[in-house]
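hey so i finally got around to running the thing on that chain from the lab meeting. sorry it took forever, my laptop kept dying and i had to restart like 3 times. anyway pasting the input first so we r on the same page abt which one it is
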Amino acid sequence: MAITLTERAAKQVQQQLNKRGKGVALRLGVKKSGCSGFAYSFDYADDVLEDDQLFESNNAKIVVKRDQLSFIDGSEVDFVQEGLNSFFKFNNPNIDNTCGCGESFSLKA
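ok and heres what got predicted. didnt touch it at all, straight out
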């Protein structure tokens, strides 16, 4: 199982952790939400917990709850800028469909 960050995403994680003055990693997760069933959650982790899986990519760390790994295994996370907006964007091979607004997704059976 693996989750990777592009160079841009890794730099963004490092910058945000430095700006916060604390934290060890980007915390990725999945929650039930939206019209398609699931949505990504992003936060910063101050600790790696017992039920977390730790990944390192481009000198930045990512943590994911082990019970959520199957939803995002094999994903690459990028950091993109579109006009005035900037955000983390998933390239997730486990997605079957996304909703029209792009905020939620369903998984392959």
